[in-house]
Here is the input.
Amino acid sequence: MVYDVIMSVCMNISLLIVLAMILTKIQFVQELLLNEDDENGNGGGNVRRKVRNQLALGGIFGVFCIISDYIGIQVEGALPNARVIGVLSAGFLGGPVSGMTTAVIASIHRYQIFPERISTLACILAAILHGIIGSWIGYARRENRQYSNRFLLMSTFVAEAIHMILILILTRPFIEALEIVKIVLVPMVIINSFGMVIFFSIFKTIFNNEDLKVAANVALALRTAERCAPYLADAETNRSSMQKIIEIVMSEYKCVGVAAIKGYEFLGRSSAFDDIELNKTSYPRLLTATATYRTTRISKVPLPEDAFYPLYEKNVILSAPIVRGEDDVLSFVMVVRKNAYSYRADIEFVTGIANYFATQFKLVDMEKQKEHLRKAEIKALQSQINPHFLFNALNTISCFCREKPEKARELLMALSSYFRNMLEDIDSRVTLETELDHVKAYLMLEEARFEEHLKIKIEAEPRDCTCRVPNLILQPIVENAVRHGAMKRDKGQVTIRIQKEEKSTMIDVIDNGPGMDKEIVDRLYESSTELPHQNESHGIGMLNVQRRLTGIYGKSAGLQVISGGSGTIVRMIIPNQKEKTDEDSGSR
Here is the structure.
């Protein structure tokens, strides 16, 4: 008898496996399993359509339970079969609607065919409990209905164990209940548990195939994004760049159409959107939902007044947000063909592309802000020309005009050179020799003014001054050494020492002043992005030079300061590689 029961249950399971293979070919089952969304969201798109599909799924599994009842072998007033697999599976795969629909069908049919059997009540209650268990698990796992083999095995084992307990509690006489349990325990508890694992292995092919497709589309999205990268810098303002991006996406991803939309304006579009016009009355709900929820939306059933309505006859439209700012969201729209059972791979592709574009746009914005800040710092540096310096220089020159006119002429030429260099393009690169000539012009004026109170010493050979440096990179350091270092002493001294090494040129500016404030040194090393107040003249030039050096050559190329009560050494190291310097110059 036990053997016959085992064979009957195995036949039930075989039937269920055939049913599973059929179900995997049905579109709405695939949509349920892969949890498709449309523009309304809420976990499955159109609610009525989803409920209809879930009811249909419950009905299919209910039919299986009915067939299972008919082919089962009667044993001592019981009917052992694989009904538990059908009821639990409906809940696991479809959720509460499917699970409870199957449970109700199974219960009603079990009562109708054998209302007088001693185990009928226990079987009906077991079917209802199985429906509740499957429905609860399916609802809890609604975001990802992929179950491990161990989970399936244990959940079915527990469900059938509950069934056996109900038979023992509700079936009378107890001796017959015990006999029933002895016969059906192994086939229903053990075999059905393994049957559930076999059954679900059929459905896992859907998830595996979809995962492979998603993985392939992620790789495709990365490749497409890489090809689009050169055009992203000005894509939002340059129509030809955005149109090139659209063409690249169309060539890589075989879709019907692609468009980038900002408000009511097409920044770029393929031919599928040529006849589409956006206005307030026809603005697609899909685009509104994209901007509102900032998530990828999918639309399958639009309203007739929707501007995209002509595209829906054979297609589905996806829209992914390109988030530019708090109130600035672009929509990257892609049209794909209908009839695919899943759009998850399409969603992954368009979402990946949109996220990459959003990141690149933010990086472009950051570079623009950085450039604006840099220009502001440059203007601050150029505006640092102290009116007192100009007054003192002119006053000094006037003193030489009568007694030493040649000296006055030299000083006027030096002042002219100084101002000419201060007003030149600070982005340009000059040789270190040219930069040093500019510094010498400034120092000539200061030496003439302070006479014996200031001594300047320059230790530099022409062969050491061949590297190219940013214009005005040295002058602020020297000026700082004179004004806030050397001239704090009765006998001030400033030394400029230049030494060319194998890979770099080392420039030291040394003064014998009282030392630099620790606060200024700390701010140099912190590379604070906050500009000092214009009145804080002590250090503003140093901070600007520090930011320029680190911005061009990297953080390791910043100023090095050694300061104490006997003086300060400010060192900068400039790479000798001409290729690197030219490349930097071209990028600025």
